[in-house]
Structure formats: structure tokens, C-alpha cells
Amino acid sequence: MIRLVEPESGLSARCQLLHDVAPVSARFLWELAERQASFEALHAIWTGPEISVPMPAGVLPGTMERPVLPPENATSYPEAGDIVLAYLAAGSTKGLPPGDFYDVGLFYGAGGRLMMPFGWIQANVCARILDEDLAKAQADCRTIRYNGACTLSFEIA
Questions:
Q1: How many C-alpha atoms does 146 have within 13 Å on its Cβ side?
Q2: Tens digits of per-residue pLDDT, 53-65?
Q3: Which pLDDT does position 92 carry in this prediction?
Q4: In the 3-class helix/strand/coil scheme, how is 37-93 assigned residue by residue?
Q5: Confidence class of residue 71 from pLDDT cuts 50, 70 and 90?
Q6: What is the chain's mean pLDDT, rounded?
Q7: Beta-bridge partners for 53
Q8: How distant, in Å, are the alpha carbons of 6, 52, 60, 72 from that of 40?
Q9: 10 Å Cβ neighbour count for 132?
Q10: How far is the C-alpha of 105 from the C-alpha of 71, rounded, in Å?
């Protein structure tokens, strides 16, 4: 289990990794948590109720693997509480930074969709916010939406 933390909003959501249906993607999140990695995050524009953590490969911790992520438990329509991991290979999509590109999405409400300015994508649902943490996480994510960009950290729960 991992925890997503953003101190200004009070976000501290425990997430169950879905090793059984998304093993490679769940391992990626676990490795971020092992390293207590922190990244800039922001409320998404195109995808609805999502806190997005864009991670060009160059911002990942130095010793961390940068795997090619296969489709695992993939969807274009995440549900409230889903944690998704999107992967776009280097050179596959116009407008992205050089190198592989990863993005963790924390979906906190209904109506999520993975429509980007360049078209539809799928992402791997690889973790879920625990039911008992979801209502507070939803309120905290709305606070992030109003506050603007933030720093989100991955921790082992």
C-alpha cells in the first residue's frame, strides 16, 4: 500500500496497489513510494476530476527504472478513486518533452475521461484510494483545484 500526500490541502490518501491486474504499473508506483519521490502536480484541464502528476523520464529519481509500460487494466474512463498511470513512448506524441513520458492521475470524481489535446488515450488503473479515505481525498483534491499547482509525494503507507 502507498500513500499520496499533499500537505497544503491536507491530502493523505492510502492507495491499494492492484498488483494482480496491473503488476508492472503497480511496481512503478511502489518504486516512487520507496524513494519518497515528490513531483509538481496540478488539476487537469481536459480529463475532468483529476490531479495530474506529469513525469517526463528525466524527472524520475536517478536510480529508478524507466520501464516501457504495457497496457494493463487500461481504460479511457477512470472512476472516482482510481489511480492511473499513463505512458507515452519517446517520439510517439507531438508536443511532449523528449524521452519517455509518464503521468500519474488521481481521479476523485465521476466523469473522468482520458481525452487530451492530441486525442484519446488509455491509462493503466494500477491503484485505488481506500474507500475509507475517498471522501476526504475528494475534498482535498477540490482544495488543490482551487489552490493551483502543488507538490505531491508518494510514500509507503
A1: 7
A2: 999 999 999 889 8
A3: 87
A4: CEEEEEECCCCCCEEEEEEEHHHCCCCCCCCCCCCCCEECCCCCCEEEEEEECCCCC
A5: very high
A6: 95
A7: 104
A8: 10, 9, 12, 25
A9: 8
A10: 15
Element (H, E) at 3: strand 2-6
Give the three cell numbers for residue 47: 480529463
Q: What angle do CA 135, 138, 139 make, to 5 degrees?
A: 90
Rounded-to-integer distance, Cα 98 and Cα 111, Å: 31
Cell 494482480 identifies what position?
20
The C-alpha cell of 138 is what?
475528494
pLDDT of residue 114: 95
Max CA separation in the chain (angstroms)? 40
Distance CA 151, CA 149 (A): 7
Q: Which amino acid is at 33?
A: A
Mean pLDDT over 87-94 rounds to: 89
pLDDT at 67: 92
